[in-house]
Every structure is written in C-alpha cells, then in structure tokens.
Amino acid sequence: MESILFYCFATVAVGTSFILVSMRNIARALFLFFVVLFAMAGLYVFALADFVALTQILIYVGGVLVLLLFAFMLSNKELLNQLQAGTSHFFALPVWQALTVALLFLGVLLYAALQFDRHEPQWIAAAREAGTVITPTDRTVQHLGIHLMTRYLLPFEVISVLLMMALMGAAHLARKGGQT
Amino acid sequence: MAFYITYIGIGLALFGFIALFALAAVYAERKIAGFVQDRLGPMETGRYGSLQTLADILKLIQKEFITPAAADKVLFIAAPVIIFMAVFFGFIAMPWAPGWVPAALNIGLFYVLAVVSVDAIGILMAGWGSNNKFSLLGSLRAVAQIVSYEIPAGLALIAAVMVAQTLNMQEMVANQGIRATVPLHFLGVWEVTEIGGILAWNVFQAPHLLVAYVLFFIASLAECNRAPFDIPEAESELVGGFHTEYGGLRFAFLFLAEYAMMFLVAMIGVVVFLGGWNTPLPNIGALKLADWTTGVIWGFFWTLSKTLFFVGVQMWIRWTLPRLRADQLMTLCWKVLTPLGFLCMAISGIWRVMVMV
Q1: Cβ atoms < 10 Å from Cβ of A124
Q2: What pLDDT, on the 0 to 100 scale, is given for residue B99?
Q3: Closest alpha carbon within chain A to B73
C-alpha cells in the first residue's frame, strides 16, 4: 500500500512538472506548481520528514506561491506577453544546451544512487546497530528543535540575519522616493 | 481492510457534521442578524422559518452549472473543491473527546495551520478563473488579508504551544484538565492539577495567554473573512467578492467552506486555549464536579458547546461592528497585532524558563 502511494505521488510530481514547463499559460502553470509542491510534500512524508512536508505546504504553497501569483496578476500584460514568447528570456538556453545540462545532472544522480547502493554510508549502518533510527511514530519536532538550538545554532542565526536584511531591503525599496 | 472502511466512515461523518452545522449556522446567523437589527429574520418557511436553509440548499442543488464564457474552465471548476478540501482536511487533527480524534498527529496544530493556508490558493484560483474584475479584486483582497493575519494568529498559537510544550492537539487538551500528565498552575502560582476545571485551561496558565487568545480570535475572524474584516466580499463595493460568478452547487460548496472555516477556527481556539473537551467545572473539596463531568460524551458536549458559543460570538460581532477600511485592516495587523504577538511569544519563553521550571 505504502509503495503504491509513493509511486502515485512520484508520478504526479514528475508528470505535473513536465506539463508545467511545457505550458504556455502562466496562470495555469502557477496553479499546477501547487500540485507539484503538494506531491513533493507527500514524498517528504515518506522520508519520515513530516515537519519538512508541512513546512513546504505552509511556506511554499501558503506564502511563496501566493506571492508569485500576486506578482503575476499585478504585473504588466505587455511584459507577460514578452515572457510567454520565450526566446528573449534571460535564462532561455537553446534546446541542446538545456538537454546536455539535464542529462549530465541525471548522470550525477544515477552515479550517486549506484554508489549508495554499493557502499552504504557508515553512519547509517552505525545508527541501525545502535537502534537510533527514526521510526514513523517518533517526535521529529523535538529533535529538530534541540538540534537547531545547539548544533546548528550558527547557521540558524546567520539565516535570520539574512532574512532581516531582506526585510529591510524590501522596506527601503517600497519607500517613496523623496523620503530616502 | 476494515480500517479503510473506518477511515471513509469518519470522513463521511465529518462531512455530514459540517453540512448539518452549516445548515444550522446559516439559520442561526439570519436569526441573530434579525435580533441585532430588531426584526424577525426568516419566518415564512416552516415554524419560525426553521426550514428556510433546507429550502435554500434544495434550490442551490437543483440549479444549473453556469460557467462564464470567458472563464478559465479548469480553474473555475477546481477552485470550490480546493477551498472546501483545505478546510475539510483541517478537521482531521481536531480532538473531540478523550480518545476521539480522527488522527492524533504529533504535529497536529502545525498540520492544521499548513493545510488551512492552502485556502488562499483556492481563493486566488476562483478569482482568476472567473475572469471578472470584481472576483479578481475580491480574491486579491481576501488573500492579502489571509496571508497577513496568519502571522498574528500563528504567533498567538506559538505562545500557547510554548507553554503547552506539544503540537499534538489531543495531548494539548489532556494537559488542560484533571487528566493532565504534567503539573498545572493557575497563573503560575496555584497548583490546580487535581482541581481542574476552568482554572486549568491554557488561558489561565499564564496571564499573557489571555491576551494571546484575544489576539488569535481577532486574527481568526480575519482569516475566515468575517466582519469586521469582510472587505473581500464587501457587497456594496465588490458585488460578492471572489464568488461573484459562482452559482448552484459550487456556490453551496464555497458557502459550506466558509461556515466550516468559522467552526474550525473557533475549535482551534477552544482546543489550544480553552481546554477543548475539558469541563469548566472544578473539583471543590468533596464536590468532584470535574471528575463527574469528564468523559467521552461529556467531551463531545463541552467541545461542541464551547465551539458553538464562539461561533455565536463571531456572528454577533459580524452584525454589530462596521467594516474596517483596507488600510485600517493592514495597520491593525502589522502595527498592533503582530508586535503584540511577538511580545506574547517572548513572554511565553521567559515564563517557561523562569516560572514553569
């Protein structure tokens, strides 16, 4: 049952991403992105990362996607037409380059997966020996909280400073010209 | 396979409950509106108009599906479903009585917040899909408001969670009454683990949680687009907001989602702050009122009565207070509620470390 569900989520995620990138209608593509994010959240649950899955929904679906939609709905139609035309886009690579990058990335992923199968990393074996593997009923939030406040405190604080800078920058940009 | 049948049964039972609640709540809303405005409200259908909402829903079910010619058909049809599902999924983690919770998730409260935030996407979908400027404006207003007010609501809940030390809603409720596994203190000084009742509720665990509850209640009104924060569907300005183009069963689903959302936010407030299925009656000496009024049936009774009381308060507020202007709405959110929320959160941290050791 679990593996059927897993493959369902995976198919939905991959399939909708394909449709998404080939779609010309930006509004619908953004709403499809919602399906992709949801399917990804489902996959996170299978990796026993329930907190990450919900954070994905809360932040990406409830926040980032809404902002994207706002930006899309409030922006100039001319600009959007230009975007939809495709080729003048800054990131638009010719097809063969995009394909090469994608294939190379696939190669790297496959190589990593094969390597992983052949030599299992030692920390996984050690954790299994010691019985410290996370089970589906464990409380992941508490582990996360403790680690964020002890082991990963510095990265956590650095990220908060970064977000603070982003907030201040946004407030500065949004100000009216004369008051700066 | 039996448990799949149970899952489906629970889903159907919840849906049935929401539908019944919406029918009753629409009637109650119209009667309360009538009372506040010194008129009678619906009186024609049935005795005292009691069959009015049933007649309304029968009319809505019979109606033809009308899709505007210029609408984005897929989005237009999907939107009511997504809006309703977002709210409906939220009910999964809500505890009803001791041992009676559809899914006792470890991160229940966080789950409810996350799933309910999907609502905003559905509203944008409806607004954009309708291809109507009133719908689009209404949905933009609604989403701006929902996204902003999620922050004070979330901060108020975090303040309570920091004191309760769990995100599992069933545990959170259990720790607010006589079945608590941790010592409870009324305002941090008087041990009330044995006494229970209203004294053990989270709002009275620490003085600032009362502020946090009021904050959450105000923010939750905005989250379900209720007056005084109903600019998204301001009839006098925007026809009907994001659901202008909807009719028939689709409109019925949007309406159902709105009332389900009212019940859900009231229930979150009750579960997190007001003791959920715990009784308000304390044990007084030999008079074991709290022991006598705790149990599965009492649990359902207390959850329902507390939640319905706060739904009633929401209706009362709707027909009493005038609507806030858009800029006043944002000022209230960002300059009053959010700083207060941060303050509550900070006090919770200090309270946890200094008082509740």
Answers
A1: 11
A2: 82
A3: A28
pLDDT > 90 fraction of chain B, expressed in percent and rounded? 13
Which two three-digit tokens encode residue A22?
Answer: 């080939």
Across the interface, whether the CB atoms of A70 and B111 are under 8 A apart is answered no
Whole-complex ipTM: 0.79
Whether domain A1-89 has CATH 1.20.120.1200: yes
Measure the CA–CA gap between B352 and B168, rounded to whole angstroms.
18
Maximum mean pLDDT: which of A55-64, B60-69, B153-162, B187-196: B153-162
User: Which pair of tokens denotes residue A179?
Assistant: 């008051």
Question: Domain extents for chain A?
Answer: 1-89
pTM of the entire predicted model: 0.87
As to burial, measured by CB atoms within 10 angstroms (0-12 exposed, 13-18 middle, 19+ buried), residue B195 is buried
- Is B124's CB within 8 Å of A66's CB? yes
Return d(Cα A143, Cα B110) in angstroms, integer: 16
Phi/psi at A25 (nearest 5 deg)? -85, 105
